[in-house]
């Protein structure tokens, strides 16, 4: 239920007396709007009608996060955490209902230290850091260590690792969250816990069970992975009339079963399939492997570029070579340049070529977006689906449907969202079923939202199962059981947070 106005006022008073000056921003603060917008990535949620937090706490110390949680609990004002602000539905800084007061603890201001220990191959990373900052810090210490993070460098490690997190080394090293060794978290009682102090079930849940559910993670200890001195990349385009349909059909079987050192994804847009590859080895090795497994793609030595691993991060982030390392430090704090909407699917069986052939017509429509196909297999498939909350380990690949536009207004939004939802509907017979799977880091409120109430009852749980099992399959019930144990009053909640398992 919404916190009444006097509760909100009491909450803000509590923040003001508990926290030092310059940390709390309310609607009355001159810089409230710029702090709020500092990591909004989707223009859809940067409008005067968007329900915004009653207060933003720009924490510079763990004790600020603890104090904010205690004030929230005392005055009945729920708190959302924001690290990089990339949530596809903006749930880290906006709510759907104007009536429900909430506050934001923002970690991006100061809780973003990255401490790399080369000898131990570990790093302690503050959740306000971006993946770009993590890559940069690693590269500054060692050319032979890396981390399998996101393709986009501005993504925050707080949300990314909470939801699993995958990128171009997932076939070699699995999900980013598979490499979490320890964490510090502020729980619903305002306690600061590390792995030794927290319930082992909670440590299981925060490694992929989705951001915003169990507490506010302040930092992660990560295992860094070895990278070779030379990696190789290519990007080749094949158009519809250059047999892209046949290539896509074959790719579905080949990409998940290539040697683990090869990642080969596809971006489908317009009448083209763009094949992008990162190989953890030299050009000769990649050319030979492609000739053996996927000769139809016709990859030649001249398509392949050798570079260091960190250069490959820049190559895929900014599409090109010779970009300066410092580009990884740009958090992109300006106003976003696009509206976007995404959806996701898991694919268990290769789709027939007829399906791909008929899909091309979708890319001729006004409002067309793109598809990103990320293959699994390799290390992803080695881990049992219940070992971490991410359950889609055994599937062939993930589809991301992505629509983006820059024109304002509802007509443009409806056109682009209509495209995405239409293609998603059309794909239903060919993707995973019962439940139709989805990736929690590609948050999609079309799958369902929580009740308006406190979300703690049996009805709420049943309703949440619809989207919860799409994201987590059989792991959803265990996540709800962990929630009942660590946050039974459902303090950490949003429109798609995990409700406590009813007793
Ligand atoms: P944000 O701060 O919005 O948080 C997301 C969710 O986690 C919210 O519910 C929030 O409350 C919660 N949360 C945030 N910080 C938390 C904390 N410290 N403790 C607990 N909960 C916390 N994904 C992927 O797997 N691979 C990829 O390559 C990419 N690339 C990519 C590019 C771009 C441009 C975007 C917009 C998104 C991606 N993503 C992605 C998706 C991304 O992983 C997902 O949006 C993450 O949740 C973003 O984490 P942020 O911290 O940036 O978001």
Automatic annotation (TrEMBL):
Domain of life the protein comes from: Eukaryota
Cofactor (UniProt): FAD
Coiled coil, from the record: none
Domain FAD-binding PCMH-type: 49-227
Gene3D superfamilies with a match to the protein in the record: 3.30.465.10, 3.40.462.20, Uridine Diphospho-n-acetylenolpyruvylglucosamine Reductase, domain 2 (3.30.43.10)
Gene Ontology molecular function: any one: FAD binding
Keyword field contains Glycoprotein: yes
UniProt keyword annotations, A-Z: FAD, Flavoprotein, Glycoprotein, Signal
This protein's record includes keyword Signal: yes
Family: Belongs to the oxygen-dependent FAD-linked oxidoreductase family.
This protein's name: FAD-binding PCMH-type domain-containing protein
Organism: Oryza meyeriana var. granulata
């Amino acid at each position: 239920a919404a916190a009444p106005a006097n509760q909100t006022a009491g909450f803000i008073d509590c923040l003001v007396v508990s926290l030092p000056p310059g940390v709390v921003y309310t609607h009355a603060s001159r810089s409230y709007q710029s702090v709020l917008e500092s990591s909004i990535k989707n223009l859809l949620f940067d409008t005067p009608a968007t329900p915004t937090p009653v207060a933003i706490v720009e924490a510079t110390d763990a004790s600020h996060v603890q104090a904010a949680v205690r004030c929230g609990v005392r005055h009945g004002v729920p708190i959302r955490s924001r690290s990089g602000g990339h949530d596809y539905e903006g749930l880290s800084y906006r709510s759907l209902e104007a009536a429900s007061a909430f506050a934001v603890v923002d970690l991006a201001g100061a809780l973003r230290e990255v401490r790399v220990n080369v000898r131990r191959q570990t790093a302690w990373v503050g959740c306000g850091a971006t993946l770009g900052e993590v890559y940069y810090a690693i590269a500054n210490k060692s050319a032979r260590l890396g981390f399998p993070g996101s393709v986009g460098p501005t993504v925050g490690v707080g949300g990314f690792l909470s939801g699993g997190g995958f990128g171009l080394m997932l076939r070699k090293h699995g999900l980013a969250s598979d490499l979490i060794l320890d964490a510090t978290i502020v729980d619903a009682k305002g306690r600061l816990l590390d792995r030794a102090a927290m319930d082992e079930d909670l440590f299981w849940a925060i490694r992929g069970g989705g951001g915003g559910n169990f507490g506010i993670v302040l930092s992660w200890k990560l295992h860094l992975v070895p990278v070779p001195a030379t990696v190789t990349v290519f990007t080749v385009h094949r158009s519809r009339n250059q047999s892209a349909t046949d290539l896509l059909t074959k790719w579905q079987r080949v990409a998940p079963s290539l040697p683990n050192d090869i990642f080969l994804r596809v971006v489908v847009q317009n009448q083209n399939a763009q094949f992008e590859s990162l190989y953890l080895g030299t050009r000769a090795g990649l050319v030979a492997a492609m000739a053996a497994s996927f000769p139809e793609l016709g990859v030649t030595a001249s398509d392949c570029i050798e570079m260091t691993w960190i250069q490959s991060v820049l190559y895929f982030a900014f599409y090109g070579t010779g970009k300066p390392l410092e580009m990884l430090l740009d958090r992109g704090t300006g106003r976003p340049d696009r509206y976007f909407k995404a959806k996701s699917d898991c694919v268990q069986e290769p789709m027939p070529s007829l399906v791909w052939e008929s899909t091309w017509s979708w890319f001729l429509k006004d409002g067309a977006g793109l598809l990103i196909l990320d293959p699994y297999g390799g290390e992803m498939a080695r881990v049992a689906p219940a070992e971490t909350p991410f359950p889609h380990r055994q599937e062939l690949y993930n589809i991301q449907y992505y629509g983006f536009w820059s024109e304002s207004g509802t007509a443009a939004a409806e056109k682009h969202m209509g495209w995405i939802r239409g293609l998603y509907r059309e794909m239903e017979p060919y993707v995973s079923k019962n439940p139709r799977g989805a990736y929690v880091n590609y948050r999609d409120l079309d799958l369902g939202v929580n009740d308006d109430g406190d979300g703690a009852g049996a009805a709420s749980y049943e309703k949440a199962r619809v989207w919860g099992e799409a994201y987590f399959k059989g792991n959803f019930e265990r996540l709800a059981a962990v929630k009942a144990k660590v946050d039974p009053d459902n303090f950490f909640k949003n429109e798609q947070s995990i409700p406590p398992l009813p007793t």
